[in-house]
């Protein structure tokens, strides 16, 4: 049973426009969320994270929004650039008071930026 | 480059053989994780270490898999009696601690023929 879901396998956006990638989760114990970007033949690269005590975190062109009541988060990229073309993974972690479950990943969304 | 380093990058082996992969984490990171990724899926958690102690193992980690981090620095992942279903990308990551981003290496791609 998938605890982190990325329902769009791919997304095509024109260069300069906003890219919005969505992610839903089911486990209410998750309290730390991350987005990773992955190019072929490379490992995932950390992009941005958000703790459950916040609803927004911004870093340059990247903003992550968290809606805890809906168990939904999104990644906004503005403006989109050709180098943003990659697979984006949403990941979640639950803090269990000393233990640390590994990150649970979604299946990824392939973002394609069209010139 | 002081990122996470994994060796080898590629490994082709015959079914039934044993293989071992190595991971060198970022030096100041005390947590080290192993993940596996297959085509069309996100990375799946296998196990993690806090310093030299292996604190958690996924049910995905069968008895044929063993991981060590003998001195709390580098780690090895061994797969015994490999099967074709073991073919995947094996990713290593490290982090400073709980609720800290994991930083991944470029992985070892295993092909079992």
Structural features, described:
The complex is a heterodimer of chains A (115) and B (113). By secondary structure, chain A is mainly beta. Helices cover 0% and strands 58% of the residues of chain A. Chain A contains no helices and 12 strands. In chain A, strands 2, 4, 5, 9, 10, 11 and 12 form a 7-stranded mixed beta sheet that branches. Chain A has a 5-stranded antiparallel beta sheet with strand order 1-3-8-7-6, with no helix packed on it. Residues 96-100 of chain A have low confidence and may be disordered. With 113 residues, chain B is mostly beta strands. In chain B, strands 2, 4, 5, 6, 9, 10 and 11 form a 7-stranded mixed beta sheet that branches. In chain B, a hairpin with a 2-residue loop joins strand 5 and strand 6 (53-57). The N and C termini of chain B lie far apart (33 Å). The mean pLDDT of chain B is 93. The chains are: A mainly beta (115), B mainly beta (113). The A-B interface holds A 4, 31-32, 34, 36, 41-46, 49, 51, 89, 91, 93, 95, 99-108 and B 4, 6, 31, 33, 35, 40-48, 55-56, 58, 91, 93, 98-99, 101-107.
Q: Identify the quaternary structure here.
A: heterodimer
Q: Segments of chain A where pLDDT lies below 50 for 5+ residues?
A: 96-100
Shape of chain B: globular
Give start-end ranges of low-pLDDT stretches of chain B: none
Cα gyration radius of chain B (Å)? 13 Å
**Biggest β-sheet strands, sense, barrel of chain A:** 7 strands, mixed
Number of helices of chain A: 0
Number of beta-strand segments of chain A: 12
Give the helices and strands, then pairings:
The complex is a heterodimer of chains A (115) and B (113).
Chain A: E1 4-5, E2 10-14, E3 19-25, E4 30-38, E5 45-51, E6 56-59, E7 62-67, E8 72-77, E9 86-96, E10 99-100, E11 104-105, E12 109-114
Parallel strand pairs in A: 2-12
Antiparallel strand pairs in A: 1-3, 3-8, 4-5, 4-9, 6-7, 7-8, 9-10, 9-11, 9-12
Chain B: E1 5-7, E2 10-13, E3 19-24, E4 31-37, E5 44-50, E6 53-57, E7 65-68, E8 75-79, E9 88-95, E10 103-104, E11 108-112
Parallel strand pairs in B: 2-11
Antiparallel strand pairs in B: 1-3, 3-8, 4-5, 4-9, 5-6, 7-8, 9-10, 9-11
């Amino acid at each position: 049973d998938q605890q982190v879901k990325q329902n769009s396998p791919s997304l095509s956006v024109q260069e300069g426009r906003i890219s919005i990638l969505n992610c839903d989760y089911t486990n209410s114990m998750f309290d730390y969320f991350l987005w990773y970007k992955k190019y072929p033949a490379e490992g995932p690269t950390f992009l941005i994270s958000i703790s459950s005590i916040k609803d927004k975190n911004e870093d340059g062109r990247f903003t992550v929004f968290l809606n805890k009541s809906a168990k939904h988060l999104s990644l906004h990229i503005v403006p989109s650039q050709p180098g943003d073309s990659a697979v984006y993974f949403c990941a979640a972690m639950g803090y269990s008071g000393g233990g640390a479950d590994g990150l649970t990943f979604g299946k990824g969304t392939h973002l394609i930026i069209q010139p | 480059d002081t990122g996470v380093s994994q060796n080898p990058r590629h490994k082709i082996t015959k079914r039934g053989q044993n293989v071992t992969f190595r991971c060198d984490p970022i030096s100041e990171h005390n947590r080290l994780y192993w993940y596996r990724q297959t085509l069309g899926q996100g990375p799946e958690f296998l196990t993690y270490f806090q310093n030299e102690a292996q604190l958690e193992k996924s049910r995905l980690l069968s008895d044929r898999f063993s991981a060590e981090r003998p001195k709390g620095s580098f780690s090895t992942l061994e797969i015994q009696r490999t099967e074709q279903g073991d073919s995947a990308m094996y990713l290593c990551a490290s982090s400073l601690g709980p609720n800290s981003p994991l930083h991944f290496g470029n992985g070892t791609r295993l092909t079992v023929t």
